Amino acid sequence: MYQLEYFPIRGLGEVIRFLLEDNNIPYENKFVQKDEWSQAKKHGVESGQIPFGQLPVLKDGNLNLAQGGAIIRYLARKHALYGENMEEQAIADMLYEAARDLRYEYFRYIFQDNWEDQKEAFLLKAKVSLACFEKHFQRKRTKYVASENICFADYNLFDVLDHLHRLEKSLFVEFPHLNQFYETMKNRPRLAAYLASDRHFAQPVFIPLGWTARG
Q1: Which segments constitute the GST N-terminal domain (predicted)?
Q2: Which residue pairs, CB below 8 angstroms and at least 24 apart, start in 116-122?
């Protein structure tokens, strides 16, 4: 069974949980608390259990795998969620990276001291990226980002869209294809069950130095 080691937050871990939950892949969470992290990090780096002193880390037997992108791609390869050919895989990689960029723009926004005053400016910037995703779905005319079958990149895009939807529910009105994708993902039976459960981390979004629940 996989073990996902991370903080008790949404952050960079929830997208991995989305993939695991939606595909009924057994795993367990190992949560690292604030007062444990300094010692856990030191020991983890020395032992190789936390290879780069960062979480999340996926443990699979003797493998300790860090970096969220590496983790989700590893799971995608193992569980046939990476696309059926090189073109689909390339598209999946492209959409994963584009969604990751948007996620970090969101993180930068919510950790500004005056983040509430910057909402409209952030939404205008986000719409530029969302318009590109909208055009992608218009061109592809597929249910998911790379094909009619779900892949790892779909979970990453869904996670980012869910952050934005929580911030501004009307944001997707001008992006009907993107909104349809969001609704399709949200209503996948296993994913919907997880989202409705008390195991799902809607908040806090992230823990920088201050362990804030903002977002």
Answers
A1: 1-83
A2: 119/167, 119/168
Q: Is the peptide bond before 56 cis (omega within 30 degrees of 0)?
A: yes
Measured distance CA(123)–CA(106) in Å, rounded? 9
Reported as a single tens digit per residue, the pLDDT across 113-152 is 887 788 999 999 999 999 999 999 999 999 999 999 999 9
> Domains of the chain, with CATH numbers?
2-79 (3.40.30.10), 86-188 (1.20.1050.10)
**CB < 8 Å & 24+ apart, contacts of 45-52:** 50/5
Q: Which of 103, 82, 75, 86 is nearest to 160 (CA)?
A: 103
Q: Are 109 and 115 in contact (CB under 8 A)?
A: yes
Residue of 174, 92, 90 whose CA lies nearest to 130: 174
Residue 33 burial (CB count, 10 A): 10
Between CA 137 and CA 151 the distance in angstroms is 15
Cis peptide before 204 (omega within 30 of 0): yes
pTM (global) more than 0.90: yes
